[in-house]
Design goal:
With 477 residues, this protein is of the alpha+beta class. It contains 14 helices and 17 strands. It has four domains: 119 residues, PAS domain (Beta-Lactamase, 2-Layer Sandwich); 102 residues, 2-Layer Sandwich (Beta-Lactamase), CATH 3.30.450; 67 residues, Helix Hairpins; 146 residues, Heat Shock Protein 90 (2-Layer Sandwich). The chain is 42% helix and 26% strand. Strands 11, 12, 13, 14, 15, 16 and 17 form a seven-stranded mixed sheet that branches. α10 packs antiparallel against α11 and α12 packs across α13. The chain is elongated.
Length: 477
């Protein structure tokens, strides 16, 4: 091959190389450049000729080139893999990697800078994606670490590798103590070989496993939990690890228990008056006549059913946050007297203790009637036969109060905080006192809606006192 042909081939290789080649003077002025460099930047040869390399850089790059890059090049003779951003003719920013060598004369003077330039767009995009992936992984790790759910990773043999704060709170083991334990020890439902092998087969097929069970805490308590097991596969698709996400469902289980009890209790409470009504009606049909006593019994039972239904509807309104009161000025003394007269029965005498002056409050008369009737009915329900119930109205300068005092069985101190819970009925009274466990719950909600409060004092075997306190409206005479 002739020298001319070799030179032509080398020139073609230089011009169309997969990287940019530039030659500049020590001050950065272009001496020569290849076509690849021009194609990347979009400039023509006339535009670049006479310009300096740093003139094509962004401002930060120009400052770094003049104050760091060139001095380092003079000192070392070569600099490699330095990132710059070129400003292209259309305004685009082109990330590049620059490798430069300083050529010197025989006298040691700097004569020319030879630089190789690589397009770093793909590398920058990869690094950006890598940084974003790392940030996402760090964020996910932070979420897992601080999550309230227990999130645990274990090897296929069950050995625990990671243990987050949610697991610490749920089971009582610190991360240090839990690491190395068996996951199957923490979840007793998997302690039997057959159960564990069945779960592992599901995970090996790539399917997660969900179930409710019990976990065992560090102090050997059993905790109701929901369990989700997620498989982690290796490069060949084999099962290498398991992630377990566990959540305390004790409250859910308690709610389910309460719902079941409520359904049973409601069925009983509604069936009893219906049976009574049906029996009275059948008796009237057989005798082909009716008695005042039978009619009164039917009316009483229908009224009882209506009260039960009203309580259920009101409780549903409260739970749906749709309960409201319509306030107006009410004489509390008059209201209490009227309700008490309506509720007088032969079984219990209700004694009134009323102040001589009017006691005015802002209230919803219908709802206050309901609250007072619940308390008086409650006092009569738990008082022994023949024992009196006292209803007392009293007031201070800015508060009006009504106390309902009975001589009943009393309430154990540990049960008092639960009295105003929906569907709660004390075990001591459930056998003889009817109701859905909604009366005190509804009364408390009505009083709260009026800006008031309700309190309880009770001695077992002596009796109880329930007191409603409402803001008082002081009228000027």
């Amino acid at each position: 091959m002739s020298d001319d042909l070799i030179r032509e081939s080398l020139e073609e290789l230089y011009q169309d190389a997969p990287c940019g080649y530039i030659f500049t003077r020590p001050d950065g002025t272009f001496v020569r450049f290849n076509r690849t460099f021009l194609q990347w930047t979009g400039y023509d040869a006339d535009h670049v000729t006479g310009k300096r390399f740093q003139d094509l850089l962004t401002i930060p790059g120009r400052i770094f080139y003049e104050n760091q890059y060139v001095p380092l090049l003079h000192m070392q003779g070569a600099v490699t893999e330095i990132s710059f951003d070129l400003r292209c003719s259309d305004g685009r920013r082109l990330p590049v990697l620059v490798n430069s060598t300083m050529r010197r004369s025989n006298a040691g003077q700097s004569t020319i800078i030879a630089s190789t330039i690589f397009d770093a767009s793909e590398r920058e995009r990869y690094e950006h994606e890598l940084r974003a992936a790392r940030e996402r992984a760090e964020q996910l790790a932070a979420i897992v670490t601080s999550a309230s759910d227990a999130i645990v990773r274990a090897r296929i043999d069950g050995t625990i590798e990671t243990w987050n704060k949610g697991a610490e709170a749920l089971f009582g083991y610190s991360a240090r103590d839990a690491t190395g334990l068996s996951l199957w020890q923490v979840i007793p439902v998997f302690q039997h070989d057959a159960d564990r092998e069945s779960v592992v087969r599901e995970l090996q097929s790539g399917r997660p496993v969900y179930l409710d069970g019990q976990g065992q805490s560090a102090d050997e308590r059993l905790i109701d939990i929901s369990i989700g097991l997620m498989p982690h596969a290796g490069l060949l698709g084999e099962l290498v690890a398991v992630s377990a996400i566990m959540r305390d469902i004790s409250q859910r289980r308690e709610l389910e228990r309460l719902q079941q009890e409520f359904i049973a209790m409601t069925s009983h409470e509604l069936r009893h008056p219906l049976t009574n009504i049906k029996g009275q009606a059948q008796m009237m049909r057989r005798r082909e006549r009716y008695s005042e006593q039978a009619i009164d019994s039917i009316v009483d039972q229908v009224d009882h059913l209506n009260r039960l239904i009203d309580d259920l509807l009101l409780a549903s309104l409260i739970e749906a946050d749709r309960f409201s009161v319509h306030l107006e000025s009410i004489n509390l003394t008059t209201t209490v007297r009227r309700i008490t007269e309506q509720m007088q029965t032969g079984e219990h005498a209700i004694h009134l203790e009323l102040p001589t002056d009017e006691v005015i409050v802002r209230g919803d008369e219908k709802r206050l009637d309901q609250a007072l009737a619940n308390l008086i009915s409650n006092g009569a329900k738990y008082a022994p036969l023949g024992k009196d119930v006292v209803v007392r109205v009293w007031a201070t300068a800015d508060e009006a109060s009504v106390s309902v005092i009975d001589q009943g069985i009393g309430i154990p101190p540990e049960r008092i905080p639960k009295l105003f819970t929906r569907f709660y009925r004390a075990e001591e009274s459930a056998s003889f006192a009817q109701g859905l466990g909604l009366g005190l719950y509804i009364t408390d909600q009505i009083v709260r809606a009026h800006g008031g409060s309700i309190s309880v004092q009770s001695d077992v075997g002596v009796g109880s006192s329930f007191t409603i306190a409402l803001p008082r409206v002081v009228t000027s005479r």
